[in-house]
Every structure is written in C-alpha cells, then in structure tokens.
User: What shape does this take?
Amino acid sequence: MPYYRLICLLIFALCSLPTFATDSLEQLVRDTAALKLNLFGDELLQPEQAFEFSASVKNGNTIYVSWEIAPNYYLYREKIKLELLNSEGVKLGDYSIPNGLPKHDEAFGDVEILSEDLNFNVSLWREDHGAQTIRLRAYFQGCAERGVCYPPMTKDVMLDLPVAHQLNALPEKMPSEKQNMNVSMIILLIFSVVVLILSAIIASRFKK
Assistant: This one.
C-alpha cells in the first residue's frame, strides 16, 4: 500500500511539472519584457530636442549663440563650429567656447563634454555700416549619457543685422602670419644668394 501511494504521488508530480514549467516560463517572459520596457521605454530625443540651437543679434557687431542641452545629454566641445554663408562683407571674429568636463571617449579619445546649457558671444567683422541679413550655420555633435551618439548636426539661422556704428577691417586686409612667414623666407633666400655670390667672388680672388 505505501508503494502504491508513492507511485501515485510521483505520477501526479510528473503530470504537474509541465504546467509548472509553462507557467514559470511565461512569468519569466513577462518579467523580461517588463525589465526591457523599464530600461528602454524612454525613447531617445530627436536631435533638435536634445540640442536646441538658437542665435540672436546682440548689436551691430555682435551675435549671441546658445544651445539648450537636455538632461542626460551632452555636446562635444571640439565638434562645435560656426560659419557664415553667403554673407558678403561680414565675417565671424574670434569666439571662445566655454570649457567642458574632461572625458575619454572611445571614438575621439580625450575630449571635453558640455552637459549644461551653452551660450557665448561672437564678434563680427563688417565692411559697411548698412543693415543686412546674414546666414549663420552651426556645426555640432553630441550623445545621450546612456551611450547612444548622434551623427554630426548642422543648424542654419537667418539674422538681421542693424546698422553698424563701428566698423572693423576684414581679416583678409590685414597681413596674416602666413604672409609674414613668406616675406621672411624671401628675404632669407635673397640674403643667402648674396652671401653665396660674395663668397664665390672672394674665393676666386684668393685663387689668383
């Protein structure tokens, strides 16, 4: 009799095992799906939402640029660049991008990242006083802190410049470092030729 009960219990346990395994597997699948939803449920922001760029005119010789960086996102400082397009008689002057936090990046090596709102002034070089419209293009690239990076981005902004009360000569009209170097090289070359000619003349006289 005890053997009969033991066999019955064993058969019942074996019959219940598939149901238990199926229920456990289904529960595991549900738990995994819930975990995935919690980890990746928040979709990545669109580039223009993660890094909202804007620019405005501060005065006739200065513009103001700004990036609103979303929480948990950052920009590469080294990837930020500004350029004027089809803007005759106007060029960008020097500008200083605020320093960021140091980071070792797998793709770019040692870089600086900017994870807070970024803004600074940019001076302009202008040829004439008249009001005009310029087209500013910003280049930049950034990532989400979860490890997903965006491709390089550009954003164009049209700006209406007012009358300029003060003008600055365009950089092209000023002697550049390269031009100064070329002049120095020419002078050095002429001097070397003169020295060689004088040396040849002196040497020929000594031979006589």
